[in-house]
Amino acid sequence: MKSEEDLLRALADHDRELEAGAEVETRVLFEFRRRRKRRSLALTGWFLCAAAALIAGFFIERGRIVPPVEQIVEQVQSPVVAAPEPSVVAAVPVHKVQRARPAAPREIVTEFFPLTDVAIPFERGELLRVTLPASAMRSVGLPVNEDRLNERVQADVLVGEEGRARAIRFVRFDQ
Amino acid sequence: MMATDPELLERALAGQEQAFAELYRRRQGGVYRFALQMTGSVVVAEDVTQETFLTLLTRGSKYDAARGTVSAFLYGIARNLLLRRLERDPGTELEDFAGAEDVLEDLTRRESIELVRRAVLSLPGPFREVVVLCDLQDCSYEEAAAALDCPLGTVRSRLNRGRSMLARKLRGVTSKVVRSIV
Predict the structure, then answer these.
(1) Which one in A4, A80, B6, B13 has a CA-CA gap of 20 to 30 Å to A42?
(2) Sign of torsion over alpha carbons A30, A31, A32, A35
(3) Shared domain check, B105 and B46
(4) What is the pTM of this model?
(5) Domain coordinates of chain A in residue numbers?
(6) How many CB atoms lie within 10 A of CB A81?
């Protein structure tokens, strides 16, 4: 029916220039910035937590390390107790010190995703390996299954010499 | 060279505001008009437009270029938001259009257009959305199918049925009226 088509065409033409008001754009962009800031803060928070966990882990692990044989020998040979044959040396589990480590799995990394809004000149910094929830990958736009959001993933955080996290990449291990 | 919609979406999801703003400016009109033509309410249309683009930020990573355009993806988000809103508040949907012939006696151009709008709004949801997308938004059948997440054949059949229903509702519109608004 021609007239019905014409009527629809007239309505389409009439509405063609209609757009959402400028205040909608303002609200949308405001919310975009707010979410980006929140994401950046969350990433920084995760990074700080992960760094704290790493440091704590380092010190805990350090407390467990068996001192090398030479150190024990030195301690025992010190003149506190003048024993001719320090029995402690024999008690040191030598096989533990010499234990061969399994071959490290191959790492596969993503590209770096910037964590700063503007590109700050980068001269020197450090790359820190951290562990994060998989949901952090979403915050840089990488797809993650809903049911795996709470899994832990490893990431490298590039930290500038001023201490700010500049970029992040995610790491997967291929066995 | 102008960035494509998928490129802008990818950059927006990585946190680039400029890309997000450009994508918004490029596509907000279509989303707004779709919501307006589906509900007849400026307020609802603006809300849905805003929510559509914010949803894009969280669900945008699900976009698959093989399944359709970014535009169709946005229509799909807007449609889901509209359906949810209609479920929550059925009163948003306008009542059935009736008694058109009496009203058509001295129509101005604007009134005629509003009459057609009301006729479209009175179509049942599944038919209205295909008429709005294909006849008012100039979407291809493929785009409409992607937006509505249904087969191409369903789009065609709903469109035919929707147009027939519309023709019946507009039966009272005389050629004089058509001339006045075309």
Answers:
(1) B6
(2) positive
(3) no
(4) 0.58
(5) 22-65+104-175, 66-100
(6) 8
Give the end of a domain, one of B68, B93, B118: B93
Q: Is the pLDDT of residue B92 over 90?
A: no
- The Cα of B134 is separated from the nearest Cα of chain A by a number of Å equal to 11
Using a CB-CB distance cutoff of 8 angstroms, which residues of chain A are in contact with residue B15? 36, 39, 114, 117, 140-141
Residues of chain A with pLDDT under 70: 1-2, 61-104, 117-122, 175
Question: In the beta sheet, which residues pair with residue A174?
Answer: A106
* pLDDT (tens digit per residue) in B4-30: 999 999 999 999 999 999 999 999 999
How many distinct structural domains can be found in chain B?
2
Number of continuous H segments (helices) and E segments (strands) in chain B: 10, 0
Residue B109 and residue B22 share a domain: no
Q: What is the bridge-based pairing of β-strands A106-109 and A125-133?
A: unpaired
The strand ranges marked E within chain A are: 106-109, 113-114, 125-133, 152-160, 165-174
Cβ neighbors of B82 (< 8 A, separation 6 or more) are B35, B38, B39, B44, B48
pLDDT in tens, B154-163: 999 999 999 9
The yes-or-no verdict on residue B101 having pLDDT over 80 is: no
**What average pLDDT score do residues B83-100 get?**
62
Write out the two tokens for B69. Answer: 């355009």
Q: Which residues of B touch A141 (CB under 8 A)?
A: 10, 13-15, 60-61
What residues in A contact B62, CB-CB < 8 Å? Answer: 143
The CATH number of residue B145's host domain is: 1.10.10.10
CA–CA dist A24, A18 (Å, integer): 13
Whether A28 and B53 lie within 8 Å, measured CB to CB: yes
The shortest CB-CB distance from A11 to any of B24, B29, B136 is to B136
Shortest CA distance from A33: residue in chain B: B17
Higher pLDDT, B70 or B170: B70
What per-residue confidence (pLDDT) applies to A94?
A: 44
Determine the residue of chain A that is closest to B131 in CA distance.
A8
